[in-house]
Amino acid sequence: QSVLTQPPSASGTPGQRVTISCSGSSSNIRGNTVNWYQQVPGTAPKLLIYNNNQRPSGVPDRFSGSMSGTSASLAISGLQSEDEADYYCAAWDDGLNGQVFGTGTKVTVL
Amino acid sequence: EVQLLESGGGLVQPGGSLTLSCAASGFTFSSYSMSWVRQAPGKGLEWVSGVSGGGGGTYYADSVKGRFTISRDNSKNTLYLQMNTLRADDTAVYYCAKGGRLIAAGKGFDIWGQGTMVTVS
Predict the structure, then answer these.
(1) Is A100's Cβ below 8 Å from some Cβ in B?
(2) Model confidence over A66-95: pLDDT tens digits?
(3) Tell me: the pLDDT tens digits for B57-110?
């Protein structure tokens, strides 16, 4: 089972700001960087945020990442219909000596 | 164009074996770590295994340790996953993903394949 915990769902109307949390521990989030992925059902995941708060080329600046202690957050501002997808956090875990993913959050645009 | 293309998925009986391949193109394959990530039907993402750029470092999730073996052939720009003693709960779409130069670095998996389905039944 996942060692990074996310809320199962989040929602907002177009234009709103939505925040997704990712709770971990000292062996993963506190000691290593967090990455975020977006997955539209039926397609491969896409890297959204790396190194806690960096956006790959092509990712809109509506997406931002932050972290504090053993938790990380992904914020989507100016929510758009195409943002409807599943979102996963991930980090290296020093105790498990492997990558761990969050439980995933389904974002719905109302 | 940077691309990953998986192959080798299919239907296998419990206890059987299967080998997945992932052909890479468009980047210096040997310079980057690679991983396999799977997704069971209707479930979330699960990291399965990773390998360093040179192939000397291999890492596994506890759920597959001792049953799966990751390897790479840098001369062929290809990543492999040998899966033995397959169980029903190994049923999933298996993705290969390009990581950073260091396996534990924070660059994330920036390139993903389209996935290959493995069904154990």
Answers:
(1) yes
(2) 999 999 999 999 999 999 999 999 999 999
(3) 999 999 999 999 999 999 999 999 999 999 999 999 999 999 998 888 778 999
The label of the residue with tokens 């890479």 reads B24
Which residue reads 């397609």 in tokens? A43
Computed on alpha carbons and rounded to an integer, the radius of gyration of chain B in Å comes to 13
pLDDT number for residue B80: 98
Which residue type is seen at A26?
S
Q: Rounded distance, CA B50 to CA B68, Å?
A: 11
The verdict on a CB contact (< 8 Å) between A92 and B61 is no
* Chain B contact residues (CB < 8 Å to A): 35, 37, 44-47, 50, 59-62, 95, 103-110, 112-115
Contact A27, A91 (CB under 8 A): no
* B46/A101 Cβ within 8 A: yes
